[in-house]
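does this look right to u?? uridine-5'-diphosphate-xylopyranose version
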Amino acid sequence: MKQICVIGVGYVGLVTAACFADLGNRVVALDVDEKRVENLKKGIMPIYEPGLEELVRRNTKSDRLSFTTSYAEGLKGAEFAFIAVGTPSGVHGNADLQYVDSAARSIAKHMTAPLIIINKSTVPIGTGDWVADVVRSAQPEPIDFAVVSCPEFLREGSAIGDFMNPYRNVIGSLNRDAADKVAQLHLPLRAPIVITDLRTAEMIKYASNAFLATKISFINELADLCERVGADVKEVAAGMGYDARIGRHFLDAGLGWGGSCFPKDVEALAYMAKEKGLNPRILNDVMEVNYDRRRAVAGHLEKLLDGNLKGKTIGLLGLAFKPNTDDMRDAPSVDISNSLIAAGARVRGYDPVARKTAAPWMTVVEIFDDVYKMAQGCHALVVVTEWNEFKQLDLEKIKELLECPVIYDGRNIYDPALMKELGFSYRAIGRGMNGK
Ligand code: UDX
Ligand code: UDX
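got this back:
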């Protein structure tokens, strides 16, 4: 049983804390947000993540997991301190490190024994070395410490599964003893462990997210071509995916990627390249292709609705940036609703869980708590997020309720042939109907 302090109880920190506790460690999760900590002590989660509430409850009950706002309390007896605070995009697309800086200084001030400090947050290459400098200069008196990078690879909506069954864990440090100790923490997960230097570990994280984003932008570019040439992108992705060199994952064409990671990570990687005098051509295009997906929706709808969106009511199916989360950070629904409103449409929205979190992002969108009520009187529906609930909709009822039977399926969840049979004016992404 190891003693661990996790700093930051957002999506990443809270999942990391609860999972390490569940593996039998003693974990104190620390956050500067008093309300969050108060709520967690009462069992109220700050985020929606499947299975998290139960995991937190179980481990709190068995005294392996506790919450605090005090660094002195959090670091008392800790051998490891994970930094999992947010690293949002700064004004130029660079990563804003003010929270990491603040966490590093607080650790330096309150540590009373040797400590392994682990960066979990996604941070620019070189940040580990910088954190070491910050801690060293902020320590009232020198106490031994090592900085290790151990980036997170947790997808929202399946974060607990991703933590417990990772593809790999990456551990980077120039201090081999510290890296080995962090590796031992991960041994129960029985996954490959990559031990490398700090900067390489930091790069592996950016490279992984940027590559996945590239895969998605690639298939989205091909989707547009599929439409023009009469091919079906879903079958193209399936056919490509059997080749182990390519793989089927992250080849779902649609409205593109959003969320708290891909947008800021691709942008930060491009920023780093530019700062070093390089021209990140692929990364720039990957972003451009992605944001074009959102910009194109209003034009497609116009074509489906007699060339004009003025006075039309459009309903968005799904608001969160992906299913199984209530996270609205860089959600396509926000840009799409803004462009529809700019084109003169009235916009409605429905999401199974993100209704509350969506409201501040889309103040002029009317948010419904019932999908059928939302559909009533709409001139078109747009599938923005592929929640399972939408796959099971009573489509005949939906057709009755709609003013015009128009569906723009931004996530390819319906069968084009069935939609045609039901009498919808249906448009999917990259699904040419040649021969069907
Ligand atoms: C994380 C990572 O930090 C990011 O780099 C990664 O790529 C994605 O996930 P996330 O867990 O989503 O971010 O962040 P967020 O949900 O914003 O939570 C951060 C938490 O840190 C908040 O609860 C905030 O109150 C806390 N925090 C912030 C601190 O405890 N101390 C601070 O100084 C600042
Ligand atoms: C991502 C990383 O996958 C994870 O390892 C960690 O680094 C955090 O960032 P997350 O953003 O939670 O996870 O979700 P993910 O499932 O990766 O999806 C990211 C975005 O890509 C979503 O907007 C999703 O809708 C989109 N996506 C994903 C596609 O458009 N097509 C796909 O085939 C897959």
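The longest strand covers residues 3-7. idk if thats expected tbh
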